[in-house]
Amino acid sequence: MNQDEVVKSFWKREVRDLFRRAGDVALDLQKKSHPRLKHDNSVVTDADLQISQIFQQGLSGMKAQGHLLIDEEVLESQQGLTQAVLESHRYIWVLDPIDGTLAYANGMSFYGISLGVLKDLKPWLGGVYFPSVGEFFVSDGDETHFIEKAFSSQETSQRITPVDQEINRQTFFFATESFFKKYKWDHSLCLLMSVPSAVSNLCWPAVGRGVGCLFDASLWDFVGSWAVFEAAGLRLHNISTGEPLEKIHTDLFMGTEARPWRVKEKYILSSSRNFPIIAKNL
Questions:
Q1: pTM of the prediction?
Q2: Which of 159, 194, 214 corresponds to the end of one domain?
Q3: Which residue range forms the structural domain that includes residue 217?
Q4: Is residue 103 part of a domain?
Q5: H runs (alpha helix) in the chain
Q6: Percent of the chain with pLDDT over 70
Q7: Across-strand partners of 127?
Q8: What is the pLDDT of residue 31?
């Protein structure tokens, strides 16, 4: 078995259970966690830290084999990562223990647990689990699936295949809260919705819940869903050039001490056909 097959087997056999355990923690602690601010003034809870530990321990064998793990809640894992360092690792795991922590801390269901694997700096494996609604989006290197009632005896699964939803006045385009500070939107094109988690904005269009989103967050906010939405035929297009994001390079990110892995430019998630329509409406 070559190394790719070893990693895929580990993903299918072990990582799925890590997601289940992490989801149990999130559900158990949502009303018990005490939110506080991190060094960058973003919110963190006990659940973020416990889920980080679950994956850190569960992926220790992969790290021992020379894989790199970037964890939003482990500052040391984000530092000193030059392009040369990234390129020296064939496999890079990127974890966001809870995306949408502010929503989570306020008792909302719009949060997800996100983990993705880059191979040669390109999307390969990925999963986003939404414990509050029992939905699991997962790409295992062979197929990509949308699973409902995940980790239960009533679990159902459907394969994600390319979707190119037509834009009309009944469809949604998802935006972050910062959208309204810079852009206007012609609602005669389609509806605009703001959801407080990047993973919702990125995963939902993969199953036809929207035509795309505006993305301007951090590395760990999109790597878990990257292989998922690409399986649906959707790409992250640079808002200025229209070029799709193909692979990771340090030049794409701010590189500041507070936000080393936040993207410099904004991207539109959409099909190739819909990108110019959406971009023209901004």
A1: 0.96
A2: 159
A3: 172-281
A4: yes
A5: 3-10, 16-29, 46-58, 60-64, 83-87, 101-105, 179-182, 198-203, 219-231, 275-281
A6: 100
A7: 115, 138
A8: 87
